[in-house]
Design a protein that fits this description.
heterodimer, A: about 160 residues, alpha+beta, 60s Ribosomal Protein L30, Chain: A, 2 domains, four-stranded mixed sheet, two-stranded antiparallel sheet, 4 helices, B: Rossmann fold, Neuraminidase, seven-stranded mixed sheet, four-stranded antiparallel sheet, 5 helices, 31 strands, about 15% helix, globular
């Protein structure tokens, strides 16, 4: 048991080192890939195994592989619960001008919306709301906090 | 809000057009002009009347303090210590003893007199050139007593104009967003105050998120973004009556509003399906026009003062840059080509410059460039700052600045700052709460 834990830790440290050496922009080991948040600290769940949010790179609205996987889980859950309607809340980090970030949040939420629609979710069930940089989840002024804040969150509307 | 009132101007003495002292406003505050602001004299009876109405012991002296503070914050003047003044206010106003004022190194002197006349405040003031030993201007006006601070601002505007050759910016107001609470759950309210921070008032209660209020330069209407009922839309607010209405009937978020220079249109962004374009709406006939049509983010539009051009922010090149186009949307040209990202372009009321926010290597700058993009000049660098707004004479910019939080996410604040076009005279603009998104009004009286 103890040995197992030590081995596991050693493994994690090795992985972290690899990630760090592989990608100079990756900070705070294991929580970010590139500058996209990959941790789970802020994630809530719509249902068991269905994360409520996806994360974006700086100035980007492209869905990552992990984001697409999350959205497919959301689509499956939405198909099973056909009466549920949702709001996609798009957000940006604090390192951009307010007005541009409002547009960017809207673009991010729509990227998520488009993906859900390709998985059969009717646009009637989805509304989009951008908060720009107005509602961060993490009030820190560092790359990790910013990565948590660049997000689109799926919220039940009914 | 503030009652509209009539100012009665009377020229009591028309002096020679030849300016004796001149202040060069392009030089910054390297050599502020020493000026003496003598307390406005007041007779005992008037003093008592104003004390009853305004709860101020000596309204003449209070008005002179307003003037003095304005002159000081302009960075162009150095108001001298009153303790050194040798002449009593009432005598100085009749005929200053120039040698006495020269002795304390004053180059200009403001004197005046306040009187209570028919429930009103009557003020006369004079501006003197000490070295030449001459009166430069004299003016009198009458208003309701409650406007006493504005009297101080108007006097400052007249003095500023006489000495610099440019219109002043003191009898103006700032509308902004007052902020409170933690960064993750910020409460925001519209607030308005005089240019010097006095008479602060909150215009909304903070129940819904509000952003980016902007003045109409032809009257005291305001346009802003409100999240009322969780629907982010552009609103129009009459600050005299408090009546507000949503602008247009858009099936999605409208944002980044500004008025056209004639005040008849609102220009803004409308976001739909992940794309933001620029639209205008005519406030009289409600006709909506689409100005840009591009699958990129087009936002932060701002008209040139003649209404013929629009500068805006677009990421059509891949990143945020500044563009200029004709007001019908034709002839789009990118004008920002320096390193970094550019946002929030805003056209100077003088027409010759565009102020902007720039992000480069993790730092934010407020800068200006000519309208063809040449002559870029960065005025100030900080951790975070954005959203410059011009003083009506195009000489000063007000913007907001946010602090970096510590490792625990604590220590956040947002404040208003101003800086001269010269890059000198950077100042914190005091507000009762945290503040952002300032917009400078035009002069209340011309």
């Amino acid at each position: 048991m103890k040995l197992n834990k030590i081995l596991k830790n050693a493994f994690l440290v090795t992985v972290a080192c690899l990630v760090l050496s592989a990608c100079a922009t990756s900070k705070k080991s294991g929580q970010m890939q590139g500058d996209v948040y990959s941790g789970t600290d802020t994630v809530e769940y719509l249902a068991s195994g269905v994360p409520d949010r996806v994360f974006f790179a700086t100035n980007e609205s492209v869905l990552t592989t992990a984001s697409r996987e999350t959205l497919r889980k959301q689509a499956t859950w939405l198909r099973k619960n056909s009466k549920i309607t949702i709001v996609l809340e798009g957000h940006a980090d604090e390192r951009g001008t307010r007005e541009y970030n409002l547009a960017l949040g809207e673009r991010r939420a729509n990227a998520a919306k488009d993906y859900l629609m390709t998985y059969g979710i009717s646009s009637d069930r989805i509304s989009v709301l951008s908060y720009g940089k107005e509602r961060p989840v993490d009030s820190g002024s560092n790359p990790l906090a910013w990565s948590k804040n660049r997000r689109s969150v799926t919220v039940k509307a009914n | 809000m503030k009652k509209i009132f009539v100012l009665l101007f009377i020229w009591i003495f028309q002096t020679n057009a030849l300016a004796l002292i001149e202040v060069d406003i392009t030089r910054g505050n390297l050599n502020p002009l020493p000026i003496a602001v003598s307390p406005l004299s007041i007779d005992n009876e008037s003093k008592k009347s104003f004390e009853k109405i305004l709860d101020k012991k000596d309204i003449g002296s209070e008005i002179s303090k307003v003037i003095e503070n304005n002159l000081k914050t302009s960075g162009l003047f150095n108001p001298l210590d009153k303790d050194a003044f040798l002449q009593a206010p009432e005598i100085a106003n009749l005929k200053p003893r120039f040698e006495d004022w020269n002795l304390i190194k004053a180059q200009a002197l403001i004197t005046g007199k306040v009187k209570y006349v028919d429930d009103k405040l009557r003020v006369e003031f004079r501006l003197w050139d000490i070295l030449a030993g001459k009166e430069m201007m004299a003016l009198a006006f009458t208003t309701v007593p409650n406007n006493w601070r504005r009297v101080g601002h108007i006097i400052t505007d007249k003095v500023y104009e006489r000495l610099t050759g440019e219109k002043g910016y003191f009898d103006t107001r700032i509308i902004y967003v007052a902020e409170e609470g933690p960064k993750t759950k910020r409460i925001k309210k519209l607030a308005i105050m005089d240019q010097d921070g006095a008479n602060n008032k909150f215009l909304t209660l903070g129940n819904e998120l509000v952003l980016t209020p902007r003045f109409n330069s032809t009257n005291q209407m305001v346009t802003y973004l409100s999240y009322f009922r969780n629907l982010p839309r552009v609103y129009l607010l009459d600050i005299e009556t408090g009546i507000q209405e949503v602008v247009g009937d858009f099936p999605g978020m409208t944002f980044a509003p500004r008025f056209s220079p004639d005040g008849k249109k609102i220009i803004m962004s409308f976001a739909k399906d992940g794309n933001s374009d620029i639209y205008t709406m005519d406030l009289e006939n409600r006709i909506v026009e689409k100005i840009t049509n591009h699958p990129s983010i087009d936002t932060s539009p701002s008209y040139s003062p003649d209404g013929k051009y629009i500068c805006f922010n677009s990421d059509r090149s891949g990143y945020q840059q500044i563009y200029v186009m004709k007001s019908d949307g034709s002839n789009v040209k990118r004008i920002s080509f320096g390193k970094g990202l550019y946002g929030t372009p805003v056209w100077s009321p003088r027409g010759d410059l565009i102020a902007f926010t720039k992000l480069h290597k993790g730092k934010f700058y407020i800068g200006v460039m000519r309208t063809d993009g040449s002559g870029e000049r960065l005025l100030t660098e900080n951790y975070y700052q954005e959203a410059p707004s011009w003083s009506p004479n195009g000489r000063v910019l007000i913007f907001y600045r946010e602090t970096k939080t510590d490792d625990k996410g604590k220590g956040f604040s947002a404040k208003l700052w101003s800086i001269d076009l010269t890059g000198y005279n950077e100042r914190l603009v005091d507000t009762p709460t945290d503040a952002s998104d300032p917009s400078w009004s035009s002069l209340l009286t011309n």
